Amino acid sequence: MPEDIEVPVLIVGGSLVGMSTALLLAHHGIRPLAIEYHRGTAIHPRAAMITQRTMEIFRSVGVEQIVTKESDEQFVQDGAIMAVETLAGKELAWFIANLNEGVRDVSPSLRLFITQSLLEPLLKARAEELGAELRFSTEMTSFQEDAAGITAQLRHRDTGEAATVRAKYMVAADGAHSRIREKLGIRMLGHGVFSKSITIYFRGDVGPLLRGRNLSVMYVVNPTLSGFFRIEKPFTSGFLAVHWLGDSKNPVTDVSAGLTKERALEMLYAGLGTREVPVTIENIMQWDATADTAERFQHGRVFLVGDAAHVMPPSGGFGGNTGVQDAHNLAWKLAMVLKGEAGLELLATYDPERRPAAGFTVEQAYSRYVTRSAPYLRSDNMQSIENDLNIELGYRYDSTAVILEDGGNPLHANPRETKARPGTRAPHLVVERNGTKLSTLDLFGRNFVVLAGPRGGVWLDAAHSASQELKLTIDAHRVGTDGLIDPGGNFSDAYDITPTGAVLVRPDGFVAWRARDSSGASSESVARVLSAILCRQA
Ligand SMILES: Cc1cc2nc3c(=O)[nH]c(=O)nc-3n(C[C@H](O)[C@H](O)[C@H](O)COP(=O)(O)OP(=O)(O)OC[C@H]3O[C@@H](n4cnc5c(N)ncnc54)[C@H](O)[C@@H]3O)c2cc1C
């Protein structure tokens, strides 16, 4: 008899993004089942650059410290992103001299590098601790959707044992070649495949070639190849990703064609710029460099996240991070709908919020790929390059889950200038409680939060009454009094309200609504706004 399983959410794919979805749902009190075809977490390093936003998300679920500690063991911190002719040879350009230079003020968290092989077990442990179930060696072979849910057929890849899952919702975290997306007939739109790239994982004492430079990512452009290196501590292992071979005017973009270990070794030597360092190849992975976004991120009860929803070249290190942000946007919405705290229509805000943000990121990754690695590609269909910070922290949402001010929101902005405008990430400000420093961001992450100015006590009363009326937990704080000290007196400016104003922040740390002063403060106004955002009228 096949096993029958009933779960609120089935997550298909348990790699970086599926695992993050499981963790974030569990954080919101939902016990999802995540299934993964592979026998365990990542065995290859794969993605490693983690943005401040992803670290903020990890902070909110209690894994920031352990991720930072493990990252320290693995990589030098605050390294540069640069271009060289070869690792041993000439320097061509410095894109970022120090990974965290000039961004420390905008977030309590820092950018860092940690490979998926180290990160995924940390996410897994926390997800399981919070109640998520993860099954490896398990493949979803088919699924059907009806008005009330999803029925999916699973098969254990070693024992052949079958199981049927009944879930209210399904999250497709099944990667760039998503079979779920294919079955739903959702097209990918964008630039298509522009290179059949490879990643060569190697071992060898390349430390001396770094010549004391603190480097995180080294783009390589020379007459033999274009690609990039990433090297782990103690500088005896790393990878070279290769995008194309030969002359940039007539490049060979199918790097994987006729590939042998000997050819890969030649490429490695061409990237290193010397044959004097003995190197051995551990593994070679092939992948398509593309820049495409799914035409829809939702189909009924199915939601696409991560590479299933958008695929981008690695230039910029945005791919996995964008997927974690999808999961973060979706998790609280699914949780509130499943708990009966929000109407079903809240889920329809996932696509209009995430698709434009992800699409913009895909284009920015493409622009970086063209300018850093493939100048032969057409540049007339490419966006101008925006500051990394605007992509990582300045993406904005425009949907019915935000009460927008004057019209709409541009897609992205400098996070130092968004100042708690509805639809943007609530700004980081250092505050103090009981002598301990914390970030305003530490007040968010689970419930809706009313954050009022020091003379905005009326908003706390309004939040309290609205909470009772709506039977919804609302956290409420006054910044600058009631034990939450604002040492620099900067809150009103950072959140662009008067001392009597308030903002309403969503569980994902995005501002849902703002009142600049106390003139409209009442439990009715707070309840009305929340009912609209949570689609309760319908
Ligand atoms: C060389 C390189 C460097 C990169 N560096 C970075 C970086 O520094 N930072 C960054 O953010 N991104 C980076 N990226 C991008 C990043 O690797 C991807 O965006 C990210 O791994 C996508 O994760 P995912 O979980 O969405 O998809 P995947 O990692 O593809 O996972 C999908 C999973 O679903 C499973 N699956 C599929 N179908 C089924 C099924 N039917 N049943 C069960 N399981 C199934 C698969 O086994 C797979 O494990 C890089 C990419 C490359 C190629």
Walk me through the structure.
This protein is α+β, with helices and mostly antiparallel strands and 538 residues long. 27% of the residues lie in helices and 28% in strands. Strands 1, 2, 7, 8, 9, 10, 16 and 17 form an eight-stranded mixed beta sheet that branches. An eight-stranded mixed beta sheet has the order 5-4-12-13-14-11-15-18. Helix 1 packs parallel to helix 4, helix 1 packs parallel to helix 8 and helix 11 packs across helix 13. The longest helix has 23 residues. The chain starts with a strand and ends in a 5-residue tail after the last helix. The site of flavin-adenine dinucleotide (FAD) has 33 residues, from helix 1, strand 8 and helix 8.
Index terms:
single chain; 538 residues; alpha+beta; eight-stranded mixed beta sheet; 13 helices; 24 strands; binds flavin-adenine dinucleotide
